[in-house]
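Narrative summary of target 7.
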Amino acid sequence: MEIRVRGGDSFWGYSQLFGVPIQLLLDSNPGINPQALMIGQTVNIPGYVTREYQIVPGDTIWQIARTAGVPQDTLLLLNPSIQANSLRVGQIIQIPVRVTNYMVHTSRPYDYGDMLEDLNTLAEVYPFIRIQSIGTSVMGKELPEIRIGIGSKQVHANASFHANEWITTPVLIRFLNEYLLALTNNGSIRGLVMNPLYESTMLSLVPMVDPDGVDLVVNGLPSEEPYRSDVLAINGESSDFSGWKANIRGVDLNNQFPALWERQAEIGPQAPAPRDYPGTAPLTEPESQAMANLTWNSNFSRVLAFHTQGRVIYWGFEGLQPPESEVIVNEFARVSGYEPIEYVESWAGFKDWFIQDWRRPGFTIEVGQGTNPLPLSQFEQIYQESLGILLASL
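Modeled conformation, tokenized:
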């Protein structure tokens, strides 16, 4: 929600009037000097939207404010052209509405377009989040990364490395939404106050690493060539892509990292396939390159990769993980009910590479139980189990 600065206004005053932490106001308006506000300048107020109201006979600003449940001054601030003592019947004014509910999709199969729509909505209401593209997919889709928080500790989580594991994406998006709601409403999640975490931690999210593959699984064959013909050939001319884990070129993105890649290449398919083909070399795919570049250019304290399924957490790699990894995974297991597993006969994964090259904690979290893609009927349980892990990670 945008307002116009009046004489005598201050960020402290806005914080008191709208009940929004001043740090979030500052971060929502990075180009504004809070010590030198200029009359008429536009300021973003996070956590609010507006609705229109048409003046009817007998209305007063006081009555409208009381009915809307907002201070009278917020109406005047939002409607600077309104003369409080001479309202005109039929006049349209804006009513500030504090957002207290989720704004994201979780009730239908979730594709790339759903994610972009949700991120655009959240960015408009919560302008203190930062969204950047870390690269593009094979088909040219931007890969968004969301950053939230100002702390020195950096925690990264990603989802949908695998196409038919798309249910992990709305898990991260809903967590983002719940976190934003708690921050702007001075609230808590499971009894934990969120604002101190915002100030101590920077959270990085890449909610959909493989958008081309996700769209293939959720929506079916693409219309574009050569992708349409290529995926049909790779999939044995079948239009059932429920077993497809790879990117649109038939490369498994979580077998693409230089962490004993050669060992994985020996046991995996030797040509593009719906799953498990590691490519001709590490980091040949634009999606895995984007994740590698993001990690090289950041300073992540720990990384979490959300996958499906099995209700287990993999946390080791060749004995290179630090001692704190076991402490963290035991807490993840406590809050989720998932089983921690130190080693598995698999290599070249994102968390493997992170542990190997940084010697910091990395986790592959296999949410839910059953056959991929997991049904939406599991979403709420998966989310509640993942919520504990995400909170503990911060």
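The domain at 112-213+281-393 is CATH 3.40.630.10 (Aminopeptidase).
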